[in-house]
Inverse folding.
């Protein structure tokens, strides 16, 4: 640190500053604050989660509290309001916190409460994104990405200024927190951020026009819901025309609520569609294992086995048949991982027709009807156009 301008000490010309607290901008500030806060909460009887270190829980008899930490923002919930008030008072005495009441707006996410449940939306953020792109006056689109177009790194002219493309793609990725229907488009466009071309910018503008179709769209979580896990996994074999790598897509539900999803290019080239599906199955199994541990911290019991719906019969056969060694030795780690979970009774693979595969929208671009059919099963709705938001957009 440099001394403030104009400061001068005649008797101590080589004065330095002594820090009495962490300052924003220092690399160690966030770590020191997190260490101090968690150390205090641990002395108050909280336990730090192994699945997610930013989660701390308190359980005693029938009382349960949970705190989620994001830098210097805390989300506190529980089933005992008086204990929550006491906790807030103690935190205020120690750290001088500010109580903002019920969660309505957090990290760009809007929480809207109705008698049917809670809806998470990023409408304000989405409108700011459209305004940054300058397309508020353009015609909206029914789908985010054209299913007949395969983006390539060689088509089109290089952009004179790639900063706008990178800014829009970065904002688009953050919008996928509440918009799983944008996940495939976001991962497809983000891989060209280093050297974007005009064809990529055109595809990006189509995604933004799709957002304009319903900017307030988000995830709906009903009050009454079962607490059983289920998952859908899928892959699109050799989707990338450049690297010929496949796309993994999975979505995981707690009852009817979508709580986790992914659309990601696989790290290696799969030699067959079965291998691509099996890698997607392994990634989904890994995520389910983590979610099971996280739900345990929330004292939510998980049924076993957890069903995983897959539309590839060969991948299901490989997962349950240990005899197929010659066909799976090059994917042996994933193979053993899935089989061990099946032997332990933690997961079970179930065949589902491709027409009913919910994760299909996470692996490829779809036309209007199948696209909206898939996302209707995600529990997606727009609370600004559907006041009850108990229904689902079709």
């Amino acid at each position: 640190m440099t001394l403030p301008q104009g400061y001068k000490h005649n008797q101590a010309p080589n004065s330095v500053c002594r820090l009495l607290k962490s300052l924003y901008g220092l690399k160690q500030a966030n770590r020191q604050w997190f260490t101090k806060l968690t150390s205090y909460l641990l002395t108050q009887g909280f336990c730090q989660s192994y699945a997610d270190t930013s989660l701390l829980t308190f359980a005693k008899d029938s009382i349960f509290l949970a705190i989620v930490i994001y830098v210097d923002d805390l989300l506190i919930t529980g089933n005992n309001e008086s204990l929550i008030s006491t906790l807030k008072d103690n935190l205020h005495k120690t750290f001088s916190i500010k109580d903002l009441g019920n969660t309505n707006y957090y990290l760009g996410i809007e929480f809207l409460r109705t008698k049917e449940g809670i809806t998470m939306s990023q409408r304000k953020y989405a409108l700011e994104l459209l305004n940054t792109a300058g397309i508020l006056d353009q015609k909206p689109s029914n789908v985010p990405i054209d299913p007949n177009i395969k983006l390539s790194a060689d088509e089109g002219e290089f952009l004179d200024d790639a900063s706008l493309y990178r800014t829009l793609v970065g904002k688009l990725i953050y919008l996928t927190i509440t918009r799983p229907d944008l996940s495939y488009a976001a991962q497809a466009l983000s891989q060209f951020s280093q050297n974007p071309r005009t064809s990529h910018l055109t595809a990006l503008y189509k995604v933004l026009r799709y957002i304009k179709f319903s900017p307030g769209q988000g995830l709906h979580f009903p009050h009454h819901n079962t607490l059983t896990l289920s998952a859908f996994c899928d892959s699109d074999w050799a989707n990338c025309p450049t690297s010929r790598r496949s796309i993994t897509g999975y979505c995981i539900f707690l009852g009817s609520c979508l709580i986790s999803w992914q659309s990601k290019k696989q790290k290696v080239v799969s030699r067959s569609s079965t291998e691509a599906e099996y890698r997607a199955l392994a990634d989904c199994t890994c995520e389910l294992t983590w979610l099971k541990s996280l739900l345990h911290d929330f004292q939510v019991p998980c049924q076993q086995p957890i069903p995983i719906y897959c539309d590839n019969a060969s991948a299901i056969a490989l997962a349950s048949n240990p005899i197929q060694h010659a066909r799976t030795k090059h994917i042996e780690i994933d193979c053993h991982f899935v089989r061990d979970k099946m032997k332990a009774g933690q997961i079970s693979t179930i065949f589902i027709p491709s027409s009913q595969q919910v994760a299909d929208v996470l692996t490829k671009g779809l036309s209007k009807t199948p696209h909206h059919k898939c996302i209707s099963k995600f529990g997606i709705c727009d609370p600004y156009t559907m006041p009850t938001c108990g229904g689902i957009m079709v």
